[in-house]
Amino acid sequence: KLSKRLQAVADLVKSDSRLLDVGSDHAYLPTYLIQQKKIDFAIAGEVVKGPFQIAKNHVAEQNLQDKIEVRLANGLAAFEESDAISSIVIAGMGGLLISEILEEGKDKLSQVEQLILQPNNHEESLRSWLVAHDFVISSEKILLEAGKIYEIIVAEHGTSELNETELEFGPYLSQEKSEVFRKKWNKELSTLKKILERLPENHEKRAAVQAKKEKIEGVLQ
Ligand code: SAM
Question: What is the ipTM of this complex?
Fold first, then answer.
């Protein structure tokens, strides 16, 4: 059984896609999707030898070597055009690392239909990267598991413009304003309030913190 987070990622993968899972760790996600018969081919990419070997063993134990190729590779170097990859998952990493991986391999993305990204932080930078490289966000999810809040961003080729608020809070998430979304930003709000309490009246950073606080309050209204 997958974690709630990985299950949410799995649910967003298009049926019958040819999947690359970057940073697959134990290859849980591709194994699950193949066993559910949602997809029929996946590459599990791992840059670190330990997890690569564990993934390889796990795939062999399940007898799925003909459907899941485990490759030791950095980011998008794990696939070639001839693999005809149509969906790419990059999950469980920092948003900056995900952006870097996409940036390094951006010339290989033209045939890829769908990116399913689950950044652990820096969602704003990742959304900016996507928009700047002609990807449009087609859906977003936010969820709470074991006290942690995760965002998932799905993108496809296309152009769009996102304003500052949409980049930071998510174009869909900020419309939906789900309970988990409110929880995330209320937490941020209380952090900012505490900072303001501690900052001296004339401190140079006050204005920026105050502005950020008001921005969040505006979105949460
Ligand atoms: N994707 C899985 C998940 O969401 O549960 C595993 C997340 S794990 C925290 C991150 C994995 O990404 C690690 O196994 C790490 O070795 C791998 N990784 C980090 N940078 C990578 C890169 N540039 N290319 C491939 N794998 C990478």
Answer: 0.99
